[in-house]
Design brief:
- By secondary structure, this protein is an alpha+beta fold.
- The protein has one domain.
- Strands 1-2-3-4-5 form a five-stranded antiparallel sheet. A three-stranded antiparallel sheet has the order 6-7-8, covered by helices on one side.
- Strand 1 and strand 2 form a beta hairpin.
- The chain is elongated and about 105 Å long.
- The termini are far apart.
Length: 265
């Protein structure tokens, strides 16, 4: 009888089995795993952002350079054009007369700077266009490719153009003899040496043969053998590629033939 009325000790309300939770060690392990996963995800996001910055900067730099070169090519195609408007005085000679109404074509050339005269907008006003390579703020490359224009009337009065159009990140600053005018200041600069020695501006004769070296000519007459110009820009973006720890280099080259050089000659 005693056995039939006895109850199990474990069935008493005060002795119900407790639900087992996480121990401190298990919690620490779980937190560590979650932290590691979050760290990997964040690292991936950071790398994606860095890659995005690099690619965006590269695209912007290339587009900026291409627009600059296209503008220069359009200018050169207009050198000395159109004759009726820019040369109202028949017989005017660019070698002896400083006539603000005469577009004398290419009036200065060096591997890092050119100056030419043209009617840029067809209005009959002659402009002087200066395109040059300028060193960076530290006196080294990456350099800045600049373009500015001023009316020939103002130029003859001693006014230099204001440079509005620029390309940053230019590595090459060749001096026409296979050497660089400016050293390159970038992490691992030695790997960019081959890009730095290329001439920004090269001159070609009427047969398309490179005049090497042509040196520097400072008058329309002295530059008369030059019939085409070539511009080369080896550019780098603002951000380094963390995957390779280098700056990706893009090389852009274009040629343009001068129209009627030295109108009035």
């Amino acid at each position: 009888m005693n056995g039939s009325v006895s109850k199990s000790h474990n069935n008493r309300p005060g002795n119900l089995a407790r639900t087992r939770g996480f121990s401190l060690i298990e919690m620490l392990i779980a937190v560590a795993i979650v932290t590691a996963v979050i760290a990997v995800v964040v690292q991936g996001i950071v790398k994606m952002q860095q890659r995005s910055f690099v690619e965006s900067s590269k695209v912007d730099t290339v587009q900026e350079t291409r627009d600059f070169i296209d503008q220069m090519v359009r200018d050169i195609h207009n050198v000395g054009y159109p004759p009726p408007k820019v040369n109202p005085s028949p017989g005017a000679n660019c070698t002896t007369v400083d006539n603000a109404n005469v577009a004398c074509g290419l009036i200065y050339f060096s591997p890092t700077q050119i100056k030419y005269e043209a009617d840029l907008d067809g209005s009959g006003t002659v402009y002087q266009v200066w395109v040059q390579l300028a060193a960076g703020s530290n006196g080294k490359c990456p350099c800045i490719l600049q373009r500015g224009a001023v009316t020939k009337t103002a130029a003859l009065g001693g006014t230099a153009p204001t440079y509005f159009t620029e390309v940053n990140g230019v590595l090459n600053s060749g001096d026409g003899t296979g050497n660089a005018t400016y050293t390159i200041s970038l992490p691992g600069a030695g790997s960019y040496t081959t890009y730095g020695t290329a001439d920004v501006f090269s001159s070609l004769d009427s047969n398309g043969t490179t005049l090497n070296p042509v040196g520097t000519c400072t008058t329309a007459s002295a530059c008369s053998s030059i019939r085409s110009l070539q511009i080369t820009a080896n550019v780098v973006p603002s951000f380094i590629d963390n995957a390779t720890n280098t700056f990706p280099v893009t090389s852009i080259t274009s040629k343009a033939r001068l129209n009627n050089v030295a109108i009035g000659n």
